Structures are given as C-alpha cells and as structure tokens.
Amino acid sequence: xLNKTDTIASFAKGLSVIESFSAxxxxxxxxxxxxxxxxxxxxxxxxxxxxxxxxxxxFDGKYFTLTAKIMRLGMDALSxxxxxxxxxxxxxxxxxxxxQACSVTILDGTEVVFVARAAKRxxxxxxxxxxxxxxxxxxxxxxxxxxxxxxxxxxxxxxxSDLSPRTPKALTRTEDIMARIAEARANGYCFVxxxxxxGLRSLAVPILNKHGQTVAAVNTGMxxxxxxxxxxxxxxxPSLLAMQSSLKRVLP
Length: 252
Hints:
Layout: H1 9-20, E1 27-28, H2 30-37, H3 41-53, E2 57-59, E3 64-66, H4 71-79, H5 82-98, E4 101-108, E5 111-118, E6 133-135, H6 140-147, H7 151-159, H8 174-187, E7 190-193, E8 200-208, E9 214-223, H9 229-248
Antiparallel strand pairs: 1-3, 2-3, 4-5, 4-9, 5-6, 7-8, 8-9
C-alpha cells in the first residue's frame, strides 16, 4: 500500500484536469474545470496553463481545449501493452476472412477501449480507431466482458453508467441489459443490433488467457441488412471462436 509520501499530489491533480475533458466537455473555462475536478480555481488555472505551455492544450482567452498532442500519451501507452501486439496478426487474419471490420477492446470502468483494430473500410459514421471508447452497456464487446464478472460487479458498473440511448433500439433499463449479459454468459457470445449506431450490428466473443480468464473481447461489425441475425451468427461465430482458441494458448 502506498503512503502519501510515495505520490505526487500535483501530478495527480494535473491528470484529473486532463480527464475532466470529454466529448461532452471539449471546451472549458477555468471555473468549469474546477467544478468538474473539485480543485480550487487557482490550482485548476496552473494545471491548465502548464498543459498549454507544453502544447497539450490551447487557450483562446476564455476557454481551454486539449490538442491532438494529448493523444500521444494514450497511444504511446497502448503501444507498450503486450495484448495489442499479440492480437493484431490474428485480428488482421480475422478481418480478411470475414471481409469486415474487427476490433479488440478492454474494459475500463463504464467504457470499452479499443486497443487493436483491422478494417478495410469504415462502417460507422463516427470512425473508430485505437484509443476510441464506447459505452460498455450497449456494445457487444462490453456485454461479453461484463458477462465474465460476478453478477453484482456487472450490475454495479451498469448502475454507474449513463444509460442514455444512443439509438431508438438501445436498451435503457438495467434489468433488460442484465438479461442480455446473462444470455452472453450462457452463449459465450453477444450479438448487438443497432444499439450503438443505427445501421451497425456487432458480434463479439471474450478473449481468454491460458487460465481461462477474460482479458479482452473481439468483435466483428457489419452493416445492418435484411439478413437474419442467426444467419450472421452462424456465418461469423466460428471464425471468432477460432481466434479465441488460438489466443487462449498464448496469452499469459
């Protein structure tokens, strides 16, 4: 257990300022950052000006915004993880076999984070890339990872999530989502039909390590057509399970 003397409080405050920016809050004044982080205004101001001086933020005289340079922090960190390097060759092969975009994600709180991706063409109106995030509750990959957790833990994550519907087809009641998670646990896969984005379907399975523990999830996404979902599952699931089996032999 760390002692207070082992940590740098100012560094922690700077990170909290970076994390306070989001898609919903891309531009913030000092008072906004102070409110979101709980820091006093003078501390928030110093953190923001430090980020600006280092090129990680821009200031227009009233509002601060993060710059593209901030992506280096996450992208460089993701590149050091062994999982993305290990799964990428299999993911490329899977995408080639299915002729569709395929991705690997890990669980981070109430979201899934894309750590590897292979796609010949973009199928979502908002392009996804390594480092992108989606709400865990409405993503097929999120549901199969929640299915690997104790039910109480999965429920706690849902209760901490913003269940606002992304599409008219999205489930918004905790009990309905928990029922789909239970199905994913029983079936070993999850199929989501246009809950993340209209026109997009997704089929996902968990990625297991040598000990049978779920460490990530892999999916394939496809444009919604009149094809029966069960036909999609029958066609795509064997390839996903083959990748799952291969990775289980090599992931520690």
